[in-house]
Amino acid sequence: MAIEIKVPVLPESVADATVATWHVSVGDTVERDQNLVDIETDKVVLEVVAPEAGVITEILHEEGATVLGQQVIALVGVAGDKPAAPATNNEQPAAASASEGKEVDIKVPVLPESVADATIATWHVQPGEAVKRDQNLVDIETDKVVLEVVATEDGVMGEHIHAEGETVLAEQIIGKLIAGAVPAAATPATSAPAASDDSNDVLTPSVRRMIAEKGLDASKIKGSGKGGRITKEDVEAFLKAPAAPAAKAAAPAAPVVALGERTQKRVPMTRLRKTIANRLLEAKNSTAMLTTFNEVNMKPIMDLRKQYQDVFEKRHGIRLGFMSFYVKAVVEALKRFPEVNASIDGDDIVYHNYFDVSIAVSTPRGLVTPVLRDCDKLSVAEIEKGIKDLAIKGRDGKLTVEDMTGGNFTITNGGVFGSLLSTPIINMPQASILGMHKIQDRPMAVNGKVEILPMMYLALSYDHRQIDGKESVGFLVTIKELLEDPTRLLLDV
C-alpha cells in the first residue's frame, strides 16, 4: 500500500505554494522523518518528511510546479516496491487489469499565464466506461473559457482523482485511463441501476444548475444518457415539450409548489460569473466612468440591407446584418479619435495602431467578449463571418483563450434582447464601450415635418481620466453620421 506525500496545510493567507527542491528521486530508499522535499510559500519554506521508511515510487509534481494545500505530490511504497507502479491504481476498482492495458494519466491542459487555476466542470465518462480516441472525457472551466480534455487512446476510464467542482492546476493529474482495455462485462449491469431519474447525485453541475434556474423537478425529466443520466439536451427537450400531456395529468402538473409554500434555491456561481462580477466591480471602482448618448436614424442602412440582402447572401454565403456596419463605423471613428483606441497602463497612455474590436456575445455560461482582430482590414462579408464564428464558438463553449485575449474597444448590442437604452460598463483595460439598442419607430421632425423613422439610441461609456467630453461626443457623432449615410464609409469622408 503506497503512502501519499502531501503538501502541508497552508495558512488562510496563502493560496498556493511551489515545489522548491526534491532531495530524493524515484527509486531512492528513504527513512522515517527524512526530509523529502522543500515547499516554498510567499512567507516560509516548509519541509515535508517521510512518515514511514520505504522507497519513492512516483513523484507527481516536479520542482517549480505550483501546488495547493494537502495536494498529493509523491508516493512512497514499502521497501522492495517497484517505482514504475503508482500505488493509487490499487485504490481504483479494476474495470480492466494491468494485463489488459496500460495506465495513462489524464492531465489538466496547459493554462495561459493570466489563468492561475481551473475547475473541473463536468466528467463525461465514469470509471469503468469504454472510451474512444479523441472522445471528450472532461470539461475544465477557467475564468475565460472551457477546455476539453480528450482521450489519447481507446480504452476504459479509470479513476477520477479529482471530482467535479474541485480546483486544479495546469498539467495536474485528474484521472486515469486504461489504454487498450475492455470494459468488464458486469460494468453496464451494475452502473445502470445506480442512475435513477430522481437522484441529484447523477446530475452534472451544469445540468443541476440548469434545472435549478428553470425551477424544474428532475424526477419528471427522462434521461437519455448512459444509465438514464439526464443531459442538457434532455432538459431542453423537456422545456420545449407541449403542455397538453401535463394538463391531462390533472392539476398537480401545473403548480410545481403547493399554494402558500415559500421556497428558495441556492445555486453556486460559475467561475465565469464570478469573474464577470469581479471585473464589473473593478471597472466601476477604478475608472472615472461616464456615459454619453445620441440617436441614429437606421433607415438608410435598413434600405441598403433590403436592396442587397439577397445578392449579398448569394455571393458570400452569409446574411448581411447590422453588426458589420457598426464595426465599420467604429473602426473609422477610432481612426479619427485615437484617444478612444488607447488604454491606461499605470501612469502611461498606450495608443494602439491596430483595430481589434471585442464583440459582446451572450452564451449559456454568461456574457463574453471575444475579439475580432484587424477589423480595418476586413470586408463587410469577412466581418459578418467572423462574428458568426465567434457566436457559434461561444454558444458551444469552444472559445479559446486567444479568442478572448486583447481587444481595444467593445461593442455590445442589447437591442437583440429588446433593450431600449442602457449604460454599458467598460470592459477593462479598455477605455470605452459602445452600446447599441433596439431599433424602434418614433416620430421625428424632418425639415419641419413629422416623419416616422426607425431610430436607435447609442450609448458610449468611457473612462474620463483618459477621454474628454469633446472626444467622446465627437466619436459618437462620427458613428451617427457614418451610420446615417453609409456612403461615407466607402468614400472615407
From TrEMBL:
One of its GO terms (biological process) is tricarboxylic acid cycle. It is an enzyme of class 2 (transferase). It catalyses: N(6)-[(R)-dihydrolipoyl]-L-lysyl-[protein] + succinyl-CoA = N(6)-[(R)-S(8)-succinyldihydrolipoyl]-L-lysyl-[protein] + CoA. GO terms for molecular function: dihydrolipoyllysine-residue succinyltransferase activity. CDD domains: lipoyl_domain. Pathway: Amino-acid degradation; L-lysine degradation via saccharopine pathway; glutaryl-CoA from L-lysine: step 6/6. Residues 202-239 form the Peripheral subunit-binding (PSBD) domain. Its cofactor is (R)-lipoate. Residues 2-77, 103-178 form the Lipoyl-binding domain. Keywords: Acyltransferase, Lipoyl, Transferase, Tricarboxylic acid cycle. Gene3D superfamilies: 2.40.50.100, Chloramphenicol acetyltransferase-like domain, E3-binding domain. Its EC number is 2.3.1.61. One of its GO terms (cellular component) is cytosol. Residues 83-103 are annotated as: Disordered. E2 component of the 2-oxoglutarate dehydrogenase (OGDH) complex which catalyzes the second step in the conversion of 2-oxoglutarate to succinyl-CoA and CO(2). Belongs to the 2-oxoacid dehydrogenase family. This is Dihydrolipoyllysine-residue succinyltransferase component of 2-oxoglutarate dehydrogenase complex.
